[in-house]
Amino acid sequence: NKDGLLKPGMFARVEIKTGGEEEVTVVSRDALTDREGLYFVFMARDGKAVRQQVKIGRIIDQLVEIKSGVVPGQKVIVTNVNKLKDQDSINIADKEE
Asked: What is the pTM of this model?
């Protein structure tokens, strides 16, 4: 207000537009592991746990944005990831709906 145009008691209606809607890939925070500043998830491929390096973005509550390394539709392991090693054999239990 360097020109003194706004006076006490005045008000204004303001609309702040942010970027448009954006689709992002997210995983549960539980799926993420880190080592020496790098982040990883384990993917389920052919009965094996495959470690995949990912680049993360925003963290929103229990979700982590994945900027690269995972694409929508890939199966990401979310339990016991701290006990897994690359190429460990796994069994996938399908969840009944």
From this structure: 0.69
How many CB atoms sit inside 10 A of residue 14's CB?
Answer: 5
* Residue 42 CA: distances (Å) to CA of 22, 60, 64, 73: 25, 20, 14, 14
What's the rounded Cα separation, in Å, for the pair 63 and 19?
20
For the residues 35-41, what does the mean pLDDT come to? 92
Question: What does the H/E/C string look like for the chain?
Answer: CCCCCCCCCCCCCCCCCCCCCCCCEEEEHHHCEEECCEEEEEEEECCEEEEEEEEEEEEECCEEEEEECCCCCCCECCCCHHHCCCCEECCCCCCCC
